[in-house]
Amino acid sequence: MARILIADDDAAIRDVVRFALERAGFDTVEAATGRSTLARFSDTSPDLVVLDILMPDLDGLEVCRMIRRDHATPILFLSSRDEEVDRVLGLELGADDYLVKPFSPRELVARVKAVLRRGVASTASPEPMLRHGKLLLELDFARVSWDGSAVPLTATELGVLRTLMARPGRVCSRESLMDGAYAIDKTVSDRTIDSHVRRVRAKFAAIGAVPIETVHGLGYKLSACE
């Protein structure tokens, strides 16, 4: 039974989310502020976080940023605003999905299940290990490294990288990356995939690596990784 942390300062929203998720068979824990979300995250080690953006003391974007320092736990943002800047910023910070209020409880459950399945799919492969130059992806452990240095990726980011590594030397279109990263839920845009690729690049850039090249007008491919 997966455990979901519900973080929202609105008790009514938490009740709706909790009822929908528990009815679907999930275990839930709750938090009403940004700081209490971090505390509950540390105490309960959830499998996924449903995270409101507008919360007291620390907003959801900052909470996401702090979680992403050390953890790849999937995060699904809730927001009362349907603005592209919010969506893109949330994805850039490491969110796996985004849902606008008011939302359908059924859609919420479907998206939670899709994100969790992507995490499972990211390690499901007949090849337990993919290697390309200094780049190593150990699928059984959902672990990525560059020349021995670990690079923490989220489940969706692993899906993007796995798709590229499965086709070394070939250009992957945004559509093929969507198929690899969103094997269950494909209702995403080109802009979303670009955001995930930028996050992967930024994490590798922090250790001086450049594993992904842009092929303008076509998509992305692996670099030489030497």
Which CATH architecture of the largest domain is right?
3-Layer(aba) Sandwich
The main sheet comes to: 5 strands, parallel
What is the terminal-to-terminal distance? 42 Å
* CATH H-level homologous superfamily name of the largest domain: Response regulator
User: What's the arrangement of strands in the largest beta sheet?
Assistant: 2-1-3-4-5
User: For the record, what CATH class of the largest domain applies?
Assistant: Alpha Beta
Description:
The protein has 226 residues and is α/β, with parallel strands linked by helices. The N and C termini lie far apart (42 Å). The chain has helices at residues 11-23, 34-44, 60-67, 84-93, 105-121, 155-165, 174-181, 190-205; strands at 3-7, 27-31, 48-52, 75-79, 97-100, 129-132, 135-138, 143-146, 149-150, 212-215, 219-222. The strands form 3 sheets. Strands 2-1-3-4-5 form a 5-stranded parallel β-sheet, with helices on both faces. It has a 4-stranded antiparallel β-sheet with strand order 6-7-8-9, with helices on one face. The protein is elongated, with a radius of gyration of 17 Å. Strand 4 (75-79), helix 4 and strand 5 form a beta-alpha-beta unit. It is 42% helix and 20% strand. Residues 121-126 and 183-189 have low confidence and may be disordered. It has 2 domains: 3-121, 3-Layer(aba) Sandwich (Rossmann fold), CATH 3.40.50; 129-222, Arc Repressor Mutant, subunit A (Orthogonal Bundle), CATH 1.10.10.10.
